[in-house]
Design brief:
The structure is a single chain. By secondary structure, the protein is of the alpha+beta class. The chain is built from 23 helices and 25 strands. The strands form 8 sheets. It has a 5-stranded antiparallel beta sheet with strand order 7-6-12-11-10, with helices on both faces.
């Protein structure tokens, strides 16, 4: 009995010691695992895909490997089974080490006196690939321990995924996806059984089984493994037999290399990502690249060597095509410069925004008439593209024909701050940087913009004036603009605000955006055929061109209901070309792109906003018609915002029967006079008629014996402008021009400098004076006693 108890105690002691030993091993393992953690850090190649996950481009990893991230979702069950069958049949049943295989390999190696077989599991191979070391027994023990560590921290699927991403295929190719793409030009889930078998054996002998060089040897090895698949009943018999008959046409393919500028841009900003999913539609991208290249080929002999294009899907805000130059690989013409982001002068391309702001501020409506005549702004004298002036024109005509003078006048009336604030709000970075140094020339391109920014601005017009983020990437939007708080509360009150679109995200009201869009659709297109049947399917487009000073840049930006497209044509060197213009060089390319993207679109055009109304106005002024208005037109207007000033383009004048003189109420005779209607021209129009010798209906000279002091329109000083500041070189004798516009009853004007008489001239003449330093008071009086006073400041500095 005593011996029995002693035996039981001994057995319990042995069990206890065994458990203690196991626990000690576990604790030791955990301690070593804590002190020497397994480092699993992989640097992948960056793969860039289009919107459908088709690879467009790829970049080497930081260690110069083609190692493309592969998830298990991309691996077919067939490929998994083949890899596990070949490399580690008991992968799902061990803890990182297969003791039976190790014992068998150890016996074989000891009995043969050399290494004849290995016993590495997939887990052990992953460790060796993560931390390559010489193959010694000590390193094998370390490898076994770390394989156990790997199994402790990762699931079987995660370990298999690591293996599929690390397995070498010769040269700098690692991982199943890179090998599949390079050797078979296929994604892993598209491989056949024969291709899977061939791919699985390359890692064992990557130099002798290199595809394209040793295909016959590779085919024989493949067939050996296919026979083993057949013997193991791994796959259906017929599938394996078919794979044996499959020819092996494997060689090293070039990886996809498309959409270079957008891919390089995203790689530079997101290179830590293993996969970048873009919004680009590759098929459309390639078509547009071809159009751009073909277009420049036609212009190349004229010394125009580059172009860029950007396409935004208005429905989603996705950038679906991005072409930075005509030929990325043309080093002679700087093809690797990204024309989408290059800062250039916009020419007239900002005018739609300026007119839209004028609509929103109640300054004009589409039928409002403005004078296109010479005008001076503190030494700045804008001119039209054709070098001519057109007299009285309405806003529709001025914008659709891109007249310069009216645009500058509108910008002056708006004030610079309103326009610059809107441009900064819309994301124009260079304008934000330079805003303190910009002037009225911004209306004509006197600033720096990018094609990206301009296209985004027109996309905002297509989106009813609401700033909407656009994106290049699908999963995490790389946005061009995010709304900023608008500091101009006064202007915000004039714009519709909703919960979905707060004022900070609105650059124009929906009503103003619609009026701009309506005008831009009236511009004559270069792609209109002569037959109606051929034009019926063309997409309706609102568009605008721009040509920079010196003919260095040609722009054409437009939007349909579906797309906004921006095009730039020119030279990255900044070389001007006499034939270069937005209408001739950029517009045809713009409409070629529209016609491949949107031809036959049945999308309805923009509906008239509820807040936009129509009214009848005088065609001569665009103002509310009066009894004197005979020609009437219908005009859009924004209630409570647009001006409701009545038309005064005609006025009643008392004249003598022979029309030789006119009278006022003071000098009008009791009998012998008649009433007549005369045009009520502004002084600037009279000055224009006189300077260019244009016949117009003049009011007869006033009765010479009249002694009344006139209270009509005083002279309007056009140069210099009130409040202007001049910085003058102290060694220079610069002179400042004096000019004014006066009523047609004025024959002489009198100029005074600092309350001292300076000169008497006719209203159409200019005078010049040399300024002193400091504040200068300037007065201009006409011969009817009407007077205008202004002040300017002059500071003399040493340049």
């Amino acid at each position: 009995m005593r011996r029995l108890k002693k035996g039981i105690l001994l057995r319990h002691r042995r069990v206890f010691l065994f458990i203690l030993f196991v626990l000690s091993l576990v604790l030791l393992f955990l301690l070593i695992d804590l002190i020497f953690p397994l480092k699993v850090s992989l640097d992948y190649s960056t793969v860039i895909t289009d919107a459908d996950s088709t690879i467009m481009n790829a970049y080497l990893s930081r260690d110069d490997k083609w190692r493309m991230y592969t998830s298990l979702n991309e691996i077919t069950p067939t490929l998994k089974k083949a890899i596990i069958f070949k490399e580690d049949k008991y992968f799902h049943y061990h803890f990182g080490v297969n003791p039976v295989s190790i014992f068998r390999a150890l016996v074989n190696n000891l009995t043969s006196g050399r290494r004849t077989s290995g016993a590495s599991t997939i887990s052990m191979q992953v460790v060796r690939l993560l931390e390559p070391k010489r193959r010694t027994y000590l390193n094998k023990l370390i490898e076994i321990f770390k394989a156990t560590q790997l199994e402790w921290h990762y699931s079987k699927n995660e370990i298999l995924q690591l293996y599929l991403n690390l397995v070498p295929f010769g040269g700098n190719i690692e991982g199943v996806k890179a090998a599949s793409m390079i050797y078979f030009n296929k994604m892993p889930d598209q491989l056949s059984i024969g291709e899977i078998a061939a791919l699985s054996i390359i890692p064992n002998r990557p130099n002798t089984l290199k595809p394209g060089e040793n295909n016959e040897i590779l085919r024989k090895e493949r067939d050996k493994w296919l026979s083993r698949y057949l013997k193991a009943d791994l796959f259906p018999e017929q599938d394996i037999l078919d794979a044996m008959e499959e020819p092996l046409k494997s060689y090293r393919h070039m990886l996809p290399d498309h959409a270079h500028h957008i891919c390089q841009r995203l790689y530079d900003s997101e290179k830590r990502r293993h996969t970048i999913y873009t919004t680009i539609h590759l098929e459309k991208q390639l078509k547009i690249e071809a159009l751009v290249k073909e277009h420049i080929n036609r212009w190349y002999f004229r010394n125009v060597k580059n172009a860029a294009a950007l396409v935004i899907d208005n429905r989603t805000g996705d950038v679906i095509a991005y072409v930075g130059s005509a030929d990325f690989f043309n080093n002679e013409d700087a093809g690797q410069v990204d024309g989408v982001r290059a800062v250039r002068s916009p020419g007239s391309a900002l005018k739609p925004l300026i007119y839209g702001l004028a609509f929103d501020n109640g300054i004009v409506t589409p039928k409002s008439v403005i004078s296109d005549v010479p005008v001076y702004f503190s030494g700045y004298e804008p001119e039209n593209y054709d070098g001519k002036y057109h007299g009285l024109v309405n806003i529709e005509y001025a914008l659709s024909n891109s007249l310069n003078v009216p645009a500058v006048k509108i910008m002056y009336e708006l004030n610079m701050g309103t326009v610059i604030e809107a441009l900064v709000k819309a994301g124009f970075r260079q304008i934000k940087k330079d805003q303190d140094n910009l002037g009225l020339s911004v209306a004509l391109g006197g600033c720096g913009v990018t094609l990206e920014e301009l296209t985004y601005l027109y996309h905002t017009l297509s989106n009813k004036g609401i700033l909407k983020d656009i994106r290049f990437m699908q999963k995490d939007a790389l946005v061009i603009h995010k709304g900023k708080k608008n500091k101009d509360n006064r202007q915000n009150k004039k714009k519709k605000q909703t919960d979905d679109h707060p004022a900070r995200n609105i650059i124009l009201s929906e009503e103003a955006a619609f009026m701009v869009t309506d005008i831009l659709t009236q511009v004559t297109r270069p792609d209109l055929p002569t037959e109606w049947q051929n034009s019926a399917n063309l997409p309706k487009v609102a568009w605008k061109t721009g040509t920079s000073y010196g003919r260095r840049d040609a722009w054409s930006i437009g939007y349909s209901k579906n797309y906004t497209i921006g095009v730039w044509v020119g030279n990255f060197s900044g070389t001007g070309v006499p034939e270069l213009s937005g209408a001739d060089a950029a517009a045809p390319l713009l409409f070629n792109i529209f016609n491949i993207l949107d031809y036959g679109s049945e999308e309805n055009w923009y509906e008239i906003p509820e807040g936009l109304k129509s009214r009848i106005v005088c065609s001569v002024t665009g103002q509310i018609y009066s009894d004197f208005c005979n020609d009437l037109v219908i005009d859009y207007y924004i209630p409570s915002v647009s001006s409701s000033k009545p038309c005064q383009h005609m006025k009643e004048v008392y004249i003598s029967p022979d029309s030789s003189e006119s009278y006022c109420m003071t000098c009008r005779p009791e009998f012998g006079y008649i009433k007549a209607l005369y045009p009520n021209y502004a002084p600037e129009m009279i000055a224009y008629f006189e300077e260019y010798q244009i016949n117009y209906q003049k009011i007869p000279p006033h009765h010479s014996e009249c002694e009344r002091i006139f209270s009509g329109i005083a002279p309007v000083i056009t140069s210099p402008l009130n409040g202007a500041e001049y910085y003058v070189d102290e060694t220079d004798s610069m002179q400042i021009a004096l000019s004014c516009n006066a009523s047609n009853d004025v024959e002489k004007v009198f100029w005074y400098i600092n309350k001292r008489f300076f000169k008497s001239i006719t209203p159409n003449e200019k005078a010049f004076f040399s300024p002193g330093e400091g504040k200068i008071d300037i007065s201009c009086s006409d011969d009817k006693g009407r007077n205008t006073d202004i002040q300017i400041w002059v500071k003399k500095i040493k340049f």
